[in-house]
Amino acid sequence: MCGRYIIFTSEEYREMKAILKEIEKHFKSGIGVNNAYEIFPGTMVPSIKLHNNRFDYTMTKWGLPMYNSKKLIINARGETINEKKTFHTLSPLVFPANGYFEWSDKIKYLLKPIDLKTIYFAGLYDNNNNSVIITTQASNNISQIHDRMPVILNKVNAKKWIQSKNSSLLLPYLNINYIKSA
Fold first, then answer.
1. Disulfide engineering: 124 pairs with which of 65, 90, 113, 144, CB 3.0-4.6 Å?
2. Are 20 and 118 within 8 A, CB to CB?
């Protein structure tokens, strides 16, 4: 599962800074991201999707409204997105990130890849710009913290996901490290 994630914008995260700069071109008031930005469900979040056959750096609302409820669906199981009526008509996008948080026994952990500074969570969005993060079974090295994890893509596979919505990309990411977070 993914209930919160983080964006770092310090100098060592140049790729993330470039993505955020591209998104800010479309929003006169800026997007409110400074040095570190913890992302919460229900908020507008940086996203990349396809629009008129071009990559569109934009903001979407993280969470799909549930029918007859004020609650939001924030995650979609990768194994069932093509079967569930709620998800099978949605379009692909990615969420740029640097890591995500999980809780185990009331301890907050920051999880992030060992080999990538900027990652992309596979996601889906609707016609109203509401979006969800796709999850998959957790890799073995983090399954003691949680049994699910967001689908993490590198830059090349993020572009493939956006262009094709290819379900074969929805796999656990193996090179994850975790630390206790304050």
1. 90
2. no
* Counted domains in the chain: 1
How many CA atoms within 13 Å lie on the side-chain side of 52? 2
Query: Measuring CA to CA, how many Å separate 156 from each of 94, 101, 118?
Result: 12, 24, 12
According to the model, what pLDDT value does residue 17 have?
80
Percent helix / strand / coil, the chain, rounded to 5: 15, 45, 40
Query: Residue 31: which CATH number?
Result: 3.90.1680.10
The tokens describing 118, both together, are 């900027």
**pTM metric for this prediction:** 0.90
Range of the domain at 18: 4-180
What is the DSSP annotation of 4-70? Answer: EEEEE-STT-HHHHHHHHHHHTT-TT-----SEEEE-TTSEEEEEEEETTEEEEEEEEE-EEPTTSS
Strand partners, 112: 177
State the 10-residue block means of pLDDT for the chain, 182 residues long. 77 80 71 66 93 93 91 96 92 96 91 93 97 96 93 97 96 90 72
